Amino acid sequence: MTVGQSEESHDAPRVLYDMQPLIADNRAASAGVVWRLAGSGRQLDANVLNLPAGQRIDTHTEPDLDVLVVVLAGSGTLTTTDGLLPLTPGMLVWLPHGSTRSLDAGAQGLSYLTTHRRRPGMQIRPHRPQAHRPPAPSAGSAP
């Protein structure tokens, strides 16, 4: 499977990706991102990822965004600071911003959908030097 990106930029409801083949046999899918939401002006990011059997996403912390994960196929384990969470198809998992986690795919791999608020793009802004202000007069001094 390849990453399917919609080039359409209109704001009409539409089918974006058929996940049935991935759900039916995620072991046949390529590793990594198999689909991502595209298009300008969107407020949401979403990805379908496939993690082959025995693969791992190392421990990391997302400082800024809450993430929702929907397990589509396979199984795995989410490791958090509170312990291990077994993952199976149909589970909806909330990963709050600031949480530390890692993810391990089970014997049949793990396919899942993630969604979160869209990250703002990098912005270059002109440097605004602070205006020079004379020091404030001390108490008891004349203006």
UniProtKB/TrEMBL annotation:
Disordered, as annotated region: 118-143
InterPro entries from the UniProt entry: RmlC-like_jellyroll (IPR014710), RmlC_Cupin_sf (IPR011051)
Biased composition (Basic residues): 118-131
Top-rank taxon, per record: Bacteria
Record-given protein name: HutD family protein
Organism: Pseudonocardia bannensis
